[in-house]
Amino acid sequence: MSTSYLQRLVEVMDQLRSPGGCPWDAEQTHESLIKYLLEESYEFIDTVAESDRSGMREELGDVLLQVYFHSRIAQDHPTDPFSIEDVAKVITEKLISRHPHVFGDTKVSGSDEVVANWEEIKAAEKGRTSALDGVAISQPALSLINKLLYRAEKYGVEIDMPTYPESLPATSESVGSALLAVISWAHKNGIDPEDALRMQSKQIMREIAQQEAR
């Protein structure tokens, strides 16, 4: 019986990380591989934008490698090891539990209700009560701000935000132009826009925490 390539990848990673395998692979840690996970994810995004089917196939393989690599590293943990099978088990159970309209008796009217149910189930599973719970702080500042605004709105948290002239129609072009102008302004004045925006994200998080504490 032939072995699937998914199982073969498990075997290859095990050989690379085991004695007599590759010295570089054996030295890697979760921390040392983070940059590669980010790079491979961005490279896959580029192939999607270019509708490059061959590139998508290759870059998805690189992303999959990172999942298998981290899982193989996790097997060596002295007190809390886990394998790629454990990872697959967790995501499989999560997909089933968060799709009760497919695997249960829940009825939905459309994708908006699916998303709402997903968020409610997720919050209940993780015991989340704050708009800040589960927000990935390490993500780029722009996406972090967007996530914080989404969470604040969802949890009904009122926060003070700077406003833009309402007379200007909000389109992808006008918003992009405004963002470009701000980034250019920051660049000309020697200010890192990522750092500046991250400072603002911290202020938003403080404000959300203060509002929730009342």
From TrEMBL:
Listed InterPro entries: MazG-like_dom, NTP-PPase_MazG-like_N, NTP_PyrPHydrolase_MazG
Name of this chain's protein: XTP/dITP diphosphohydrolase
Coiled-coil residues: none
Biological processes, Gene Ontology terms: dATP catabolic process; dGTP catabolic process; dTTP catabolic process; dUTP catabolic process; response to stress; TTP catabolic process; UTP catabolic process
MF-aspect GO terms: nucleoside triphosphate diphosphatase activity
UniProtKB keywords: Hydrolase
Keyword Oxidoreductase among record annotations: no
One matching Pfam family: MazG
Source organism (scientific name): Candidatus Planktophila limnetica
All residue ranges annotated as the NTP pyrophosphohydrolase MazG-like domain in the record: 28-103
